[in-house]
Amino acid sequence: MRTLILNKSNVVQGSNNTEYVYAFPQGAVSFGEGEKVALSSITMFYSTPNITEINNNDKFQYIWVDGLTYDVNIPEGFYEISNINDFLHQTFINNKHYLLETATGNFVYFMTLVSNSVTYKIDLTTFPINTTLYPPATYNLPAGATWAVPTTTPALNPQLNLIGSRNFGSIIGFAQPLANNIFPSTNNTNVTTITSSTITPQVSPLSTFTLKCSLVNNNYSIPNSIIYSFPPFGAFGSQFSVTPPEFSFIDVNVGYYSDFRVTITDQDDRPTTILDPDLTILLVVKSKDE
């Protein structure tokens, strides 16, 4: 059997480190009837972000108590729910959408996202605000704020707005809206409102990597170039290795090849992103007589 090794020197520029081209050093190579290819091992870092432009899940909005809608644009990265909540609060700080407790200097936020390990849901909590609940003698607006604490009764609360053309809702477990979905549905209440996920949260859209090779013809898969699939292991940023317990040989298309391509997609054969190109793929080729 022959071994073929691909690493970061084979990466295709502009492919988000998911496409690798191996050029045979001796030029065109002939693959005959009965020759097969299998994955021997792959070693890589778990560096696929869960929130990206490619995933179309990097943006949502909130409606503040002044009635205006504000964007939350999340930079590409790997985010747990606690990280998303922190980023939301940082957006509130940037927009001066919080109050300062006079006695302590603590920041008071009026919307949170929290993972509920008991119910396996994400809880969106919004808090009412008016001058009765937050009197100006005790709570101050931040310097430069352009909004005023509502004086209405009942009080007002901010709302989360899931944009219909975006996929952020699946991250926090809210069904993909046909148009814009607003949570909670009303913004005038004197009580704290908790809105829980309506579907199972998919904090990471990636569950499995799919490895494809342009040499093969796998009659049992769609697409027919699939040679193996495997889940990411360990925490984000950690290195992991996958070694199949036995070779799963796939037939090679008969012909002459000067090169071939290996591509990594997600479980639905969608493009993905690998931030760290430090990756090694070992393939084995066996002839008909082996």
Would you kindly provide a written description of the structure presented here, covering whatever features stand out?
The chain has 290 residues and is mainly β. The protein has 2 helices and 21 strands. The strands form 6 sheets. Strands 1, 4, 17, 18 and 21 form a 5-stranded antiparallel beta sheet that branches. The protein has a 4-stranded antiparallel beta sheet with strand order 2-20-15-16, with no helix packed on it. A 4-stranded antiparallel beta sheet has the order 6-5-12-13, with no helix packed on it. A hairpin with a 5-residue loop joins β7 and β8. It is elongated and about 85 Å long.
* Portion in beta strands: 25-35%
What count of helical segments does DSSP give?
Answer: 2
Measured between the Cα atoms of the first and last residue, the distance is 7 Å
List the uncertain runs.
none
Outline type: elongated
Largest sheet: 5 strands, antiparallel
Gyration radius (Cα, Å) is: 26 Å
Structural class: mainly beta
- Percent of residues in helical segments? under 10%
Order of helices and strands: EEEEEEHEEEEEEHEEEEEEEEE
- Report the count of strand segments: 21
Mean pLDDT score = 95
